[in-house]
């Protein structure tokens, strides 16, 4: 009887929690999971004492015998964890610098003790020393529609700052700190052929794949601490003991909950349309506040217009102090961290770039919750593509990342350069799981190559079509879990709708070569020639004699002009070829780029004076822009100018160092 | 008023030494020109008949640099080596140049002829080289010690956790201290070289000793003269370099004009340096004259350790 009453109460509680709306007017996601956490920070012991009530709703048609939870703080428990093995960081030696999570009690909805009902599992690498995932066997399997309720008391010991979580003296960035459900994938979802938990261990390069959830989190910290979180602040109360205060946060439809606490933060508030923005930043960086707000507002504007609305009315972002630099550059949808330094030249847009990037993850992972473990390109690569577009749009097409009179660099160039300069650019494809990229190619493949691929795609199909693809991707997959094939299906659908069969029945040929292939793009103008077409000159045999016909020189000579193009790379892409004649005429040709070579022939009174493949440099995967054009009159003025400046610099430098 | 008279004397001497200055400019230009010409040829061969230079019109383009990476890395490596050799060679050549200049600036060289410059440079080469070397080493040591001490203090402050921004403050503070000490070391070097020439000495250590003594004997006057000259030189240098480096001529004629202007300005820069030498020479000569008229024997310098 007691159990039944408890069950009814829990069900009512669950229903109330999941249905109630505080942050948004309507639920944005399916809300399979819910968390209510009461956490107390002990700054001296670097621990968080927590109590958590949470549940998972079985929305599949499967009878599920188990549940799986992440215990990611155990990644920092020893040097044998999968994270530590895959990390170039050596583990620290002091006990106080390690991190872990201890489950003090574990009960189900009836109060049954589950402490002996769970075991550590390592689905990715069978590492017996890894304790970042547990499999729990409840007393009863979850039938379709059932809610599995759990109540856990835990103690999280934060590590000395690493991998964007932990502490540095009195600075705390608290992420991956509570037991969190994996994602139950029923058959047909993403790549699942049968129902099962998708709950990866904690790896060096990936941490995100979770359900959109509601979080009610109560955080108790010493009074002098300034806090920020991914939730909306509902209330703040002092304990009355003059020591501690408690903050109550509510977050809806986000994939993970992180928070920070540090007495040294300055708090700034601003608004963009419906979004209240909070910035936590060290006092010494107050001059960068405007830069940071400008960056986040630009990102909000650009992504809202070109992808879809930012649905939350609150957003917090953090510029961690120098000692907390480990926390920089991390995304938790409605709280993210930027990266900067106490002094940051205006010409270097690093803080803006990180802010735009991490905010962008609110879309690519936060709203479009792809699996970062299995398809990091869909998270980091897509987000980098948008980051680059935003940076170059607002900070200058050629100066998105550096804008100095002597040197400018666009953000998209930085990505292309990282791809081109990588020795491993042809080692593997983007099919790999995040921890399987060989030869240190994870970052290049997931961020840089993927972004360059998307830029190249945009170069082929056009910016408007690309934006429409992402709008459609948002419409179809917001607050769900899309996979790479789902994204490509949207690309195929939109390209077909806009361009018909111009690029074939689908765009799979593009992704098969670029994303899932190892080839390179390299087209070259081999040469062009202009040869005079002469009138007949020679011997004509007549009835019984031969007649010599001399050539006649005419002013209006006709030329045969030939352009010879080569494909040096393995990847074939359609491209434009611009041919310019000395009478000012310009012809734009298109080439499907499939053959190894292509000739264009012309005849007329004018001669070719230059040829350009891909004249707007839209095929950014092309590994060599230098061989994309040819002319007889190379403009060497820029080179002479740089050499002149080299002379000036060297003269003054030598003059200065001489006594 | 004394400051002005020494500055005026230095300026006049500097202008009269124009032949020596032009020789210095020409030799430096030839040395740098050899390196620049090879760099230009390398770039030309890499670019070939491509139109990629259109991306370089506004500024250095990272995409182009990446595409030229193989040739460029070889070019950068060779230019870097050439640059290091150039620094070394200039340091040595500067011993000749400054020896020649101090000779032509001194009152014993009344005709300010080219032979005076060349003979001064040749006869005092080794002594001036030693003076330049030692004063440079003193400067490096002083800067390192000041920077090191401040960095150590900051890193140990707050129990090993310095306040945010403390290190950048320490760096700025050490730069200010070094900047304040720089005129002293330049005075030592200039007085030493002027003393060497003026006394027909070949003893660099004695000259350095004399340099220190002279510097502190009329410290306020000498320091003020040096500070004024350094500010003028630095201001000129910063202004010229920032304007020239920021200019973007887009035609061949514009680039050539920029080249001409930059070389004229560099010659003026050499005049400014010579002005400094001339002013210190004037200061030294006045001190020596005063000492002789007051019946003192040699002006100041106690030999230090030439025998060591």
What separation lies between the terminal Cα atoms of chain A?
96 Å
Figure out the total of helices of chain B: 10
Number of domains of chain B: 1
Low-confidence segments of chain B, ≥5 residues, pLDDT <50?
297-308
Q: CATH top level of the largest domain in chain A? A: Mainly Beta
Q: Cα-atom Rg of chain A, whole angstroms?
A: 31 Å
What does the average pLDDT of chain B come to?
A: 88
Q: Strand fraction band of chain B?
A: under 5%
What's the assembly state of these chains?
A: heterodimer
Describe the structure.
The complex is a heterodimer of chains A (659) and B (308). Chain A has 659 residues and is of the alpha+beta class. Chain A is built from twelve helices and 33 strands. In chain A, helix 3 runs parallel beside helix 4. The N and C termini of chain A lie far apart (96 Å). The mean pLDDT of chain A is 93. Mean pLDDT of chain B is 88; it is low at 297-308. Chain B has one domain (2-293). Classes of the chains: A alpha+beta (659), B mainly alpha (308). Chains A and B meet through strand 24, helix 7, strand 33 and helix 12 of A and helix 2, helix 3, helix 4, helix 6 and helix 7 of B.
Give a topology summary:
The complex is a heterodimer of chains A (about 650) and B (about 300).
Chain A: H1 2-19, E1 33-42, E2 47-57, E3 67-70, H2 82-85, E4 100-108, E5 118-120, E6 133-136, E7 147-157, E8 166-168, E9 171-174, E10 180-181, E11 183-185, E12 196-198, E13 213-222, E14 226-229, E15 232-238, E16 244-254, E17 259-262, E18 265-272, E19 275-282, H3 289-306, E20 314-318, E21 330-331, E22 335-337, H4 350-360, H5 362-367, H6 376-395, E23 402-404, E24 407-409, H7 411-421, H8 442-461, H9 463-477, H10 484-499, H11 508-514, E25 523-533, E26 538-541, E27 546-549, E28 558-567, E29 575-581, E30 586-591, E31 597-604, E32 608-613, E33 629-631, H12 637-657
Parallel strand pairs in A: 1-13, 19-20, 20-22
Antiparallel strand pairs in A: 1-2, 2-7, 3-6, 3-10, 4-7, 5-6, 8-9, 9-17, 11-12, 13-16, 14-17, 15-16, 18-19, 21-22, 23-24, 25-28, 26-27, 28-31, 29-30, 29-32, 32-33
Helix pairs in contact in A: 3-4, 3-6, 4-6, 6-8, 7-8, 8-9, 9-10
Chain B: H1 2-16, H2 18-47, H3 62-67, H4 69-105, H5 114-123, H6 125-156, H7 166-198, H8 204-217, H9 219-246, H10 252-293
Helix pairs in contact in B: 1-9, 1-10, 2-4, 2-10, 4-5, 4-6, 4-7, 4-10, 6-7, 6-8, 7-8, 7-9, 7-10, 8-9, 9-10
């Amino acid at each position: 009887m007691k159990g039944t009453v408890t069950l009814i109460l829990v069900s009512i509680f669950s229903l109330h929690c999941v249905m109630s709306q505080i942050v948004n007017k309507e639920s944005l996601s399916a809300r399979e999971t819910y968390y209510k956490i009461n956490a107390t920070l002990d700054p001296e012991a670097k621990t968080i004492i927590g109590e958590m009530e949470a549940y998972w709703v079985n929305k599949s048609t499967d009878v599920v015998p188990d549940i799986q939870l992440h215990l990611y703080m155990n990644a920092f428990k020893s040097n044998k964890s999968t994270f530590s093995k895959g990390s170039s960081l050596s583990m620290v030696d002091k006990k106080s610098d390690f991190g872990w999570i201890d489950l003090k009690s574990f009960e189900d909805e009836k109060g049954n003790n589950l402490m002996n009902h769970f075991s550590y599992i390592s689905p990715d690498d069978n590492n017996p020393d890894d304790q970042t995932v547990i499999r729990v066997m409840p007393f009863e399997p979850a039938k379709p529609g059932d809610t599995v309720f759990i109540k856990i008391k835990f103690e999280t010991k934060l590590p000395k700052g690493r991998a964007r979580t932990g502490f540095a003296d009195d600075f705390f960035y608290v992420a991956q700190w509570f037991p969190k459900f994996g994602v139950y994938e029923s058959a047909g979802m993403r790549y699942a052929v049968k129902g099962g938990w998708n709950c990866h261990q904690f790896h060096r390069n990936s941490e995100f794949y979770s359900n959109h959830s509601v979080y009610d989190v109560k955080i108790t910290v010493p009074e002098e601490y300034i806090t920020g979180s991914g939730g909306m602040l509902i209330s703040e109360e002092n304990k009355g003991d003059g020591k501690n205060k408690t903050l109550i946060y509510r977050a809806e439809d986000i994939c993970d909950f992180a928070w920070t606490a540090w007495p040294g933060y300055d708090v700034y508030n601003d608004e963009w349309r419906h979004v209240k923005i909070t910035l936590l930043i060290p006092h010494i960086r107050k001059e960068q506040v405007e830069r940071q707000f400008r960056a986040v507002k630009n990102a909000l504007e650009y992504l809202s217009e070109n992808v879809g609305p930012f649905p939350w009315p609150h957003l917090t972002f953090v510029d961690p102090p120098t000692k907390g630099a480990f926390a920089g550059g991390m995304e938790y949808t409605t709280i993210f961290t930027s990266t900067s330094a106490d002094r940051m030249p205006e010409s270097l847009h690093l803080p803006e770039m990180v802010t735009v990037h991490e905010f962008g993850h609110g879309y690519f992972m936060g709203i479009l919750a792809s699996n970062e473990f299995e398809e990091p390109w869909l998270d980091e690569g897509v987000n980098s593509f948008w980051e680059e577009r935003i940076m170059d749009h607002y900070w200058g097409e050629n100066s998105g990342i550096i804008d100095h009179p002597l040197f400018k660099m666009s953000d998209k160039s930085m990505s292309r350069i990282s791809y081109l300069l990588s020795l491993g650019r042809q080692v593997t494809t983007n099919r790999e799981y995040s921890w399987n990229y060989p030869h240190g190619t994870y970052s290049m493949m997931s961020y840089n190559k993927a972004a360059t691929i998307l830029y190249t795609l945009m170069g082929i199909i056009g910016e408007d079509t690309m934006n429409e693809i992402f709008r459609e991707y948002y419409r179809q997959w917001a607050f769900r879990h899309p996979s790479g094939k789902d994204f490509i299906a949207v690309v195929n659908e939109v390209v077909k709708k806009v361009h018909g069969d111009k690029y074939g029945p689908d765009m799979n040929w593009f992704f098969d070569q670029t994303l899932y292939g190892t080839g390179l793009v390299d087209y070259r103008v081999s040469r062009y020639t202009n040869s005079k077409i002469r009138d007949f000159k020679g011997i004509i045999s007549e009835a019984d004699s031969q007649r010599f016909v001399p050539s006649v020189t005419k002013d209006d000579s006709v030329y045969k002009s030939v352009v010879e193009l080569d494909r040096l790379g393995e990847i074939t892409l359609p491209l434009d070829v611009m041919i310019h004649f000395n009478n000012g005429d310009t012809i734009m040709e298109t080439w499907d780029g499939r053959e190894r070579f292509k000739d264009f022939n012309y005849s007329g009174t004018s001669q070719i004076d230059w040829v350009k493949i891909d004249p707007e440099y839209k095929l950014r995967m092309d590994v060599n822009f230098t061989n994309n054009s040819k002319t007889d009159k190379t403009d060497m003025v820029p080179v002479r100018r740089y050499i002149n400046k080299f002379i000036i610099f060297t003269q003054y430098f030598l003059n200065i160092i001489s006594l | 008023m004394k400051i002005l008279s020494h500055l005026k004397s230095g300026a006049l001497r500097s202008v009269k030494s124009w032949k020596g200055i032009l020789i210095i400019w020409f030799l430096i230009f030839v040395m740098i020109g050899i390196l620049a010409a090879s760099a230009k040829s390398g770039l030309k061969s890499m670019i070939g008949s491509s139109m990629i230079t259109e991306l370089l019109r506004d500024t250095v383009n990272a995409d182009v640099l990446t595409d030229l990476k193989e040739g460029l890395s070889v070019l950068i490596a060779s230019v870097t080596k050439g640059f290091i050799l150039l620094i070394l060679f200039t340091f040595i050549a500067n011993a000749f140049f400054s020896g020649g200049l101090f000779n032509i600036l001194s009152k014993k060289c009344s005709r300010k002829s080219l032979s005076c410059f060349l003979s001064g440079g040749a006869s005092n080469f080794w002594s001036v080289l030693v003076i330049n070397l030692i004063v440079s080493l003193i400067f490096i040591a002083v800067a390192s010690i000041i920077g090191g001490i401040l960095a150590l203090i900051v890193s140990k402050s707050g129990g090993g956790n310095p306040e945010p921004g403390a290190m950048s403050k320490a760096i700025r503070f050490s730069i200010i201290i070094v900047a304040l000490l720089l005129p002293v070391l330049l005075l030592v070097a200039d007085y030493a070289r002027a003393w060497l020439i003026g006394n027909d000495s070949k003893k660099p250590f004695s000259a350095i000793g004399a340099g220190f003594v002279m510097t502190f004997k009329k410290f306020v006057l000498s320091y003020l003269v040096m500070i004024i000259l350094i500010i003028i030189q630095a201001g000129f240098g910063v202004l010229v370099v920032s304007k020239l480096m920021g200019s973007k001529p887009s035609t061949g004629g514009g680039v050539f004009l920029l080249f001409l202007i930059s070389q004229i300005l560099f010659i003026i820069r050499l005049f400014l340096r010579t002005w400094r030498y001339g002013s210190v020479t004037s200061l030294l000569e006045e001190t020596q004259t005063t000492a002789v008229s007051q019946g003192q024997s040699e002006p100041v310098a106690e030999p230090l350790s030439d025998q060591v």
